Amino acid sequence: MATTPGMVGKEGTIHRATDSLGTDGASHRAVSALGTGDTRHRADSTLRTYRRVVGLTGAALPVVSFLGRLPTATVQFGSLLLVARTSGSLGTAGLVGGALAVGQVACGPLVGRLADQHGQRTVVLVFSLANALAIAALVSGALSHLAPGPLALLGALAGASVPLVGPLARARVVALARGSGADDRTVNAALSLESTLDEISFVLGPAMVGVAAVLAHPAYALGGAALLAAVCGSGFALHPTATATHATATGSHPTASATTTHPARDHGRTPGSRASGARPRIPRSVHALRAALALQGAMFGACQAGITALTERLGREDQAGLVYAAMGVMSAVAGLTMAAVPARLGLRLRWRAATAAALLLSLPLLWTENLWGLYAVVTVLGVAYAPHLITVFVLTERAVPPTRLAEAMAFATSAIVGGQALAVAVTGRLAESNGPNAAFAVGSSVAALACAIALTARPTTYTAPEKALPTRVEEEIGPHTGEPQTIEPHARVHSEGEPHARVHSEGEPHARVHPEIESHARVRHLPRQGTNPPP
Fold this sequence. Notes:
Structural class: mainly alpha
Number of helices: 16
Distance between the termini: 63 Å
Shape: globular
Order of helices and strands: HHHHHHHHHHHHHHHHEEEEE
Helix content: 55-70%
Number of strands: 5
Strand content: under 5%
């Protein structure tokens, strides 16, 4: 079969493969070339999607937000090393670390709620400066050998004042994307990028603490965290995009056009927004998503305790942080590739696949007995973590009202932190008394529960309450004829939640009117008083 000069690329490859089918290996080379082209195209598409995300925020915001979230990753681990070294007591160190986690879990949703109600700029600025002071006070108290009680109180203050740059960055970039009319693929890529930045921060933060502890003292790492919280947290607060979330939630965003890409959601003013003084409710389906994140946090904690116990048993305690970092690096890589997942693989399918993968990939830990086997199993296990986090964050964004997005993201992060802190406390002692396999068994059991939730939960998409509109309008003026008209609504709404309306005029084609008219309207002419009806 002859080919035209324009038949190049994939089509040309197919024809050449057909013509030379009898040649050994020719068809395999053609298929390989076709697959390579598809892979290259998908990679280019993914890069373009990430460029659109960076174009929405500007190149500076991801850098500032990454540096602004590093203190959260640094202080949790750094406080343990600092207090353990200054007090000589692992019990006191655990008490302070637990108080810090409790403070963050308890106040995290409050920070998000305040950001929803008053905007991110003021809230993040105040909490960033307060967090810097609280971390400095904790370092000073530890170096001054304060009693365990006051030291735990300082730890709680350091946790309660965390500005939650990570969750608020998610809410901000989603608001920017929705406000610019971006499609769901761009929103998903934005959340993938944010989760990747989280993963990298939780790898780099503890590594910085470890280096500081070996070269000098953990106090230096915490001092650097306080400086980052003050400088980069303030930079995140003062960035020009800080008002994006609040503006979109209240309907004042200059380019808000979310209905063009997400017809079931209303990102403007709703009866539950600040305009009416009442907050819209969080749907019940979100509770299952929060439970899934808490279970993933518990799996983090159980694996962390098991890794620590196994490296201690092998006499290689110094490798525990590196093993955990290897899992974090693989998770970050997997998170970046999530933007390339085809749209035909729906969110619920991705959720189920991620939880099933986490369960199956965690099982080999039960039989791992050497360091290199631990590296291999834990690194592969990291493939399942970021995809699960990203998918659940995307489902949360779809399910909650836009006016409560920052609070929902903060609550989700608190669920992860709370699950991890509880699991570390429980499985740490379990691993000490029964060995690392006991902690790994808890991790696999938690993964099974998360998989069960993914299989049974039914996450929903938030739909704004319908606006009340008149059911009958007398003496409307026709747009084309200037004649009085009567509108008789029909109780039928478009299947996707985007109402349509048709205007019927004699001799005129069907015209679509503003989507806030939530019915199909049939318009007929009325005769003027004292005149004959129009012919």
